[in-house]
UniProtKB/TrEMBL annotation:
Residues 65-170, 171-281 form the PRD domain. The keyword Hydrolase does not apply. Gene3D superfamilies: CAT RNA-binding domain, PRD domain. PROSITE patterns: PRD_2. This is Transcription antiterminator BglG. InterPro entries: BglG_antiterminators (IPR050661), CAT_RNA-bd_dom (IPR004341), CAT_RNA-bd_dom_sf (IPR036650), PRD (IPR011608), PRD_sf (IPR036634). PANTHER family: CRYPTIC BETA-GLUCOSIDE BGL OPERON ANTITERMINATOR. The keyword Repeat applies. Pfam families: CAT_RBD, PRD.
Length: 282
């Protein structure tokens, strides 16, 4: 491998005999190097192989705009993630996460913090990835003295999730989390209440949504022949039932799969429970 370009002190661009370009990562690999020199295997601890010329040009442009420190921090984050998850992440995360961290710090310095609407859901569906996000926030504070909001841990977790070899469970889990977040937003909008995500009543409600969504996607929704239950709930909790039907319409439009009457009934009960506990707390 011959050095074609030194991108930063820890990263170089090299090319082989067949003109295939590679990005090499290694601590200090760019120090005292010159274009045209060969690269020894023992100097390298990461290799990124771009899939096409267009993609490599996009990634190389990132290097011109991102300080080297972010690539160093990203390598530490990825090492932690791979240790905890016991898997190797897609190498493209070195570029995408470095870019994200750089942009997040820039936004934060300018007072622009973007909330993650599925923060709580990611925290509970992907606890390992979320813990990596929290580790990343501590690392940014230690290395750069920047304190980002807690929600940023979920944004970083997104990158970790997406960088895994996406199997059916991972992709389904992300769909579950997004639907739970969407349903939660509808309920909050209908009730005109901004719930505390750490509130025990809200957490209990989200837990129900999690199991409901899993049943929905797995085709294992509750179906009973007790029509009396639904009629009873209709009489007892009319407001909660209206909200539950709005949720039902939202889910069916989004996924084109019907929600059973029994699931609507149980959802109504949990919405009413959330309403009642919130009233008591206030």
């Amino acid at each position: 491998m011959i050095i074609r370009k030194i991108l930063n002190p820890n990263t170089i661009l090299a090319i082989d005999d067949e003109q295939q370009e590679y990005v090499f990562f290694g601590k200090g690999i760019g120090y005292s190097r010159k274009i045209g020199q060969t690269v020894a295997d023992e100097d390298v601890n990461r290799v990124f192989i771009p899939v096409d010329n267009r993609q490599i040009q996009e990634y190389l442009r990132l290097f011109d705009s991102i300080p080297a420190v972010y690539f160093d921090i990203t390598q530490q984050i990825i090492k932690k993630a791979e240790e905890l998850l016991n898997t190797q992440l897609n190498t493209s995360i070195f570029f995408t996460l470095s870019d994200h961290l750089n942009f997040s710090i820039e936004r934060h310095k300018n007072g622009l913090n973007i909330l993650n609407r599925v923060y709580w859901e990611i925290k509970n569906y992907y606890p390992i990835e979320f813990s990596v996000g929290e580790y990343a926030l501590k690392l940014l504070k230690k290395e750069l003295g920047e304190i980002l909001p807690p929600e940023e841990a979920a944004n970083i977790a997104f990158h970790i999730i997406n960088a895994q070899n996406v199997d059916s469970s991972t992709s389904k889990g992300m769909a579950y989390a997004k639907l739970v977040g969407g349903i939660s937003d509808i309920v909050k909008y209908e009730l005109k209440i901004d719930f505390d995500r750490e509130d025990v009543h809200y957490q209990r409600f989200i837990t129900h949504l999690k199991f409901f969504v899993e049943r929905y996607f797995e085709g294992k929704m509750i179906t009973e022949n007790d029509s009396g239950l639904f009629e009873q709930i209709t009489q007892l909790y009319p407001k909660a039932l209206t909200i539950a039907f709005n949720v039902k319409d939202y889910i069916e439009i989004l996924n084109n799969t019907k929600v059973t009457k029994e699931e609507v009934a149980y959802l109504t009960v949990h919405i009413n429970r959330l309403m009642s506990n919130k009233t008591i707390d206030e």
